[in-house]
Amino acid sequence: MYYSNCLWIVFILHSFVLGIDSNDFNIHGTTSQGWEFVRDLFKDNFVQERDLGASMAIYYQGQPVVDLWGGWFDQSRTKPYDHNTLQYVFSTSKGLVAIAVALCVQRGLLDYSALVKTYWPEYGQNGKENTTVADILSHRAGLPLDDYPMERILNWTAMVHTLEQREPQWPPGTAHGYHPLTYGWLAGELVRRVDPKNRTFGQWVRDEITNPLQIEFYIGLPLEQEYRVSPIETVLNNVDTNDANEIFESNPFNDHRVQRAEIPAANGIANARSIALLYASLIGDLDHGKRKQLLSENMLKRAIKSNTPDNEIDITLGVHTKFGMGFLLYDDMITSLGSNVFGHSGLGGSVGLAAPAKNFSFSYVINRMNIDQQIKIDSRYKTMLDKIGSKLDDRRAF
Fold first, then answer.
1. Where in the chain is CATH 3.40.710.10?
2. Can you tell me the distance from the alpha carbon of 128 to that of 368, in angstroms, rounded to the nearest whole number?
3. Could you tell me if 101 and 190 are in contact, meaning their C-beta atoms sit under 8 angstroms apart?
4. Which residues of 87-101 are buried (b: 16+ CB within 10 A; e: fewer)?
5. Which of 234, 273, 228 is nearest to 55 (CA)?
6. Over its length of 398 residues, how does the chain's per-residue pLDDT go in tens digits?
7. Taking Cα atoms as reference points, which of 209, 220, 226, 151 lies closest to residue 184?
8. For the chain, N or C: smaller number of CB within 10 Å?
9. What is the C-alpha separation between 378 and 364, in angstroms, rounded?
10. Residue 242 and residue 221: Cα distance in Å, rounded?
């Protein structure tokens, strides 16, 4: 943890610390000069009761400039949401999966244009013979349905065998439809198939991404870290109450078995500072060049290039979505941050994203989940991003 600790110590020493001893909504943390306005916007989400507990972080030009957290660990409001809290981030973890595959492509182990059966022969059956790696990464594989019993979802091998036998709902590559859970096993199994060390996907991520970067982003939470995970609170907005109550009756997201399992599309557990650093590592060097960019410029361009035809409707969600190689592309949703904004949001509001044109990365992580928020830009940080984008255009602000 040496690098991470040193980086944040330097950040704290060179930042203007605003109200870190304040009990006002338990908001603590640091903001660099020129970024103080972000704390006020963060606080407003608690004032308006949009958030129960949350953290957010920003990197700009390879340096951490915002690291804030606040609110409560759970609904009892007896324990603060603090610097040590970890959080379920749902589909925000799909971005981590996309990075894992991109690293395999960069190392020559995978090819986006290659057929999946080249690496995973058992997959090439029942109408899936011509599926490419790119089809899986851009939600064009035709296997979006996730109606599986919990015991199977918790078993990687069982899910892989199930997907091998399934027939696609549409000819792979001819349309796209969001794969809420199956994306993770499909892409994750490709990584496993080309791993010479035969690791689980979660272990691969720890060894190749999170440990080298000294961040916390777990696919398969270690037992000793469970006490740090803030439970999810569900808020019902624009959702039929009976349907929502049925979906969340047992609240499986707070089940320790689910947290320990490897469900890469949906059960990532992290904090905002880790996710912001992860995306910062994709778009430039960190810490004044001491840490080199994780993906090459050419590799990043390939990974964030759209593989969705213009105006094609997402079959699963029934709206326009646009995907690169696993990344959700935000150009049409976030116009204030320049071109090629990419990342991934999670059910309920968490997000991680990067804006290469601004050398900017951002993460917002929450425990109060608005389940009507799919992959839209959550209102809790939409205003933030718009104001940040305006200020980034005025370099005198920093």
1. 2-95+202-320+332-372+382-397
2. 39
3. yes
4. bbbbbbbbbbbbbbb
5. 273
6. 544 555 554 444 444 444 344 447 999 999 999 999 999 999 999 999 999 999 999 999 999 999 999 999 999 999 999 999 999 999 999 999 999 999 999 999 999 999 999 999 999 999 999 999 999 999 999 999 878 899 999 999 999 999 999 999 999 999 999 999 999 999 999 999 999 999 999 999 999 999 999 999 999 999 999 999 999 987 655 444 444 444 444 467 788 999 999 999 999 999 999 999 999 999 999 988 888 999 999 999 999 999 999 999 999 999 999 999 999 999 888 988 999 999 999 988 999 999 999 999 999 999 998 766 556 789 899 999 999 998 887 765 55
7. 220
8. N
9. 10
10. 31
d(CA 361, CA 353): 6
What CATH architecture is 2-95+202-320+332-372+382-397? 3-Layer(aba) Sandwich (3.40)
Residue 322 tokens read as 């646009």
